[in-house]
Please model this.
Amino acid sequence: MIKNVTILGAGLMGSGLAQVFAKSEDIHVILLVRKMKEEPYAPIIKNLDLLIENGALSKAEKDGVLSRISFTDDMGAAAKDADFIVECVPEILETKQDVLRDLEPLCRPDAILATNTSVMSITEIAAKCKKKDRVVGTHFWNPPYLIPLVEVVKAEETSEAVMDASMELLRKVGKKPVRCQKDVPGFIANRLQHAIWREALSIVEKGIADAATVDEALRYGPGLRWPILGILENADMIGLDLSLNIQSYIVQYLEDSHEASKLLKSLVEKGDLGFKTGKGYQSWTPEQIEASNKRLREYLIRVTKDI
Ligand SMILES: NC(=O)c1ccc[n+]([C@@H]2O[C@H](COP(=O)([O-])OP(=O)(O)OC[C@H]3O[C@@H](n4cnc5c(N)ncnc54)[C@H](O)[C@@H]3O)[C@@H](O)[C@H]2O)c1
Model:
């Protein structure tokens, strides 16, 4: 049974993952920081307090989570007793490869080595490891303590035992892991998300609707179904004969560009980066930005309470 989880990199995702695993009373988490002066508890405490404010966590549970997280800047100490190690270092292929290569001689031969890469090939990340069958992708979504999905990605040499153990661990800490059986860019959920993004931008570029209208069409239409009715279950519900008729007609009109959107490129060139600059597809005041972030977190806390 997995009892010791080590997380490499105490940034946005690493500190969130520490919180996820430490929810379980029989898991101890070690967070590897680059320098001991880095303070990983602060963002975790902020997240836990938000859960308390929204009635999703008690003060005793918060103290329990914090008591099960420790941190070190010594990779040997972080690795030696770990059953499961997940790297959350920056999205640079060579950095990830080197971290796993350096880690291997320091950890137990049966330890699982997971990577939280957003898009990179797990097979390439494992390239400098000697024992590649224990390297697996575990793609968490931000904020990881609120989004249940984790994509568990099988690289060319990942063993079935490692896939199974990773799935079981993630279920145990309350996540909804899904198996991605092929190591492909975007795994499952980002491929879906980017297909929708491509079409959404194309609709704006062609003057069919503006950005706010595209978002409304999703939020008040199909987006309402998705939390309870997957898109393929929905097709089964309406009937595959109807589904085939509709798809045969519509597919020829959909965006199929293999380049990034011209609209997106031109906005970035102008320095319109979204919330970061107050203007993206739409204009945003500081109050609207604050409200949007708050609304998302409070909504996620509410809807994931009973998942
Ligand atoms: N931010 C997101 O929304 C998101 C979502 C899913 C996955 N991811 C992935 O998670 C990973 C981490 O992203 P993040 O947003 O937490 O980045 P981040 O920059 O917030 O954190 C990275 C951390 O790694 C540390 N670090 C750098 N080199 C290190 C090393 N050699 N050993 C130990 N620690 C080291 C840094 O000091 C920093 O604390 C990336 O692969 C990213 O693509 C990010």
